[in-house]
Design brief:
56% helix; DUF805; single chain; two-stranded antiparallel sheet; DUF805 domain-containing protein; transmembrane; membrane; mainly alpha; transmembrane helix; 6 helices
Length: 127
């Protein structure tokens, strides 16, 4: 849960680097919250099956859009890529697959043009 809260604290920070652990824990908790909100939306009758969203899940998705984008950009920085690569997800079918491939790659060892390696700073919780 700390990784999720850390991303929310840095919701407009598009500089620096983020570890895989930070990105994927944020992604997992986001997925669980969205799933729970979709179930609640369905029970309340506010779920729109065509849109695949309801009132609560839509508001939540809008609220975490900027933090999610920021952590994805920082994750790309950690792999040595510019944050603009996040736009590749707009290409149908192939784009999201390429972006996921970039997001699961190992960090660049040592410092790069985006800052020091965050994994080196946290040797005590390396996975």
């Amino acid at each position: 849960m700390n990784w999720y809260l850390e991303v929310l604290r840095k919701y407009t920070v598009f500089t620096g680097r983020s570890r895989r652990k930070e990105y994927w824990y944020y992604f997992l908790i986001n997925f669980l919250i969205i799933t729970a909100l979709l179930i609640i939306d369905d029970m309340l009758g506010t779920l729109d099956p065509e849109a695949g969203m309801g009132l609560l899940s839509g508001l939540y998705a809008l609220a975490v859009l900027l933090p999610g984008l920021a952590v994805a950009v920082r994750r790309l920085h950690d792999t040595g890529r510019t944050g603009w690569w996040v736009l590749i997800a707009l290409i149908p079918i192939v784009g999201p697959i390429i972006l996921i491939f970039f997001l699961i790659q190992e960090s660049v060892d040592g410092a790069n043009q985006y800052g020091p390696n965050p994994k080196a700073a946290n040797k005590d919780d390396v996975v």
